[in-house]
Amino acid sequence: MEGEILQEVQAKKKREMERAKERENKTRELWEALKMSEGLEKMTIGKETTKAKNRTSIPLKELRIVLLGHRGAGKTAAGNTILGSEAFPIKMSVQSIKKEGCIAQRHVTVIRASDWEKEQLLMDTPELTKQELMLSLSMCPPGPHAIVVVVSVLLKFTEASRRAVQEHLELLSEKAWKHCMVLFTCEEWLGDLTIEQYIESEGKPLQWLIEQCGNRYHVLNYKNRKGSSQVPELLQKIEYMVTGYGGIHYQLGSDTISKLENLRKMETERAGERRTAVDKHRQELKAKLKQRN
After folding, report:
1. Which of 30, 151, 166, 187 is least crowded, fewest Cβ atoms below 10 Å from its Cβ?
2. Tens-place pLDDT, residues 44-54
3. Is the pTM of this model over 0.85?
4. 57-94 b/e (C-beta count within 10 Å ≥ 16 → b)
5. 9-49+59-244 has which CATH code?
6. What is the pLDDT of residues 60-84, one digit of tens each?
């Protein structure tokens, strides 16, 4: 019986390695197609088919990136790695945070979006978090070049994880997927495994996410930061992706942005009024205690 189990495990691993190799080749072909998009009649990216005539891979002087993901996925570390500094604070924040830097001869803007709890569905996400997620896309006008879904290889990516990502992404709109790619963190934990082997072994929920993002993904190794080409390669992939869509960035409708900004302003004002009322109440209590003494 042990021999049969061992054979089954070995056969499963062999199938996963074969699929991993296929995915690696497919991904390489995708980036090559995007890189050499000029002169191609057409190319398929995920579910989208776009014309590529007269399209050139001109290096962008500016890149705008929004990092999305659940709490603990590694958005802060990813943002700091991309910018090459401790730009983002480690402390948790409900609000989305914007930081900028000059990386690989490009002006790079990175937004660390407000996060949801792991496996938390949209219906359970606080309204403030939803608003901050949507507002994060308006923090780098005229809109981000890439919406990057951060996934840690240290955490199991379950069906609930998949549903949470899908619901929060589609809160932004269906068209958001067209501008998405997956960024894996903590590659050093995988040892000798390739990221493709990890994707195939993790199962259908993660594979669905990769396919939904047009098989566009990258991986960061935090132990190999200095002298590494991983960040320039990430920026180049984003550049190729943008070129593949004719240089079009993601953009929320002006009406949606205006509505969200008004909601945020109203909530900030109400919060200020509430703080003022609380402070006044405290002062009155202190004055009464002082009179008694």
Report:
1. 166
2. 444 444 444 44
3. no
4. beebeebbbbbbbbeebbbbbbbbbbbeeebbeeeeee
5. 3.40.50.300
6. 789 999 999 999 999 999 999 999 9
